[in-house]
């Protein structure tokens, strides 16, 4: 079975990308279409897929450029801050909301509290080197962590605060990863289009005694972030 034409074009474009190198400007779509002997629609489709793959980045009014390599995050109970710094990047967070809400039945079961109990909802945009890469929402029991608002700098590391100031010992966590399309609000916060594939992570974390610590929903730009897990038999 022959490969779709846009896939063949995409493969050839990867060679162009490798020659240009990081930050290099891709020739205009019409020029590439003419050089490759294909329609502009076919070229546009190939370029869109490479943008979704994180190989290219479009800048409105400027053109399309070779993207920086994706950030690779470990699927592990580690601080986002420390994981990025270990890769030579500068992490930052912007607080969208930090408030108390009433737990619904699902959240109450996950945090082992009663439905209607107060829960912190901490939503933050995650940045790497000044660029938004993720949107993280964390839920924690107010009853278990009554002083969290007093001791946590919400623009800093939550894990460092929990272990250093609140004496929490992390035990284990469960994480589910799936692909989704962002809502208009999420796309706006991440400075992305709704057509851009997103990676959604759901994580439940427990302490060393098996008690729930947090429930986390993390949405990452698929063009900027990948994940790595260490597998052992």
TrEMBL record:
Residues 3-69 form the HTH gntR-type domain. It comes from the Bacteria. The keyword Repressor does not apply. GO terms for biological process: negative regulation of DNA-templated transcription. Keywords: DNA-binding, Transcription, Transcription regulation. Coiled coil: none annotated. One of its GO terms (molecular function) is DNA-binding transcription factor activity. Pfam families: GntR, UTRA. The keyword Metal-binding does not apply. PANTHER family: MANNOSYL-D-GLYCERATE TRANSPORT/METABOLISM SYSTEM REPRESSOR MNGR-RELATED (PTHR44846), MANNOSYL-D-GLYCERATE TRANSPORT_METABOLISM SYSTEM REPRESSOR MNGR-RELATED (PTHR44846:SF1). This is GntR family transcriptional regulator. The lineage of its organism: Bacteria, Bacillati, Actinomycetota, Actinomycetes, Propionibacteriales.
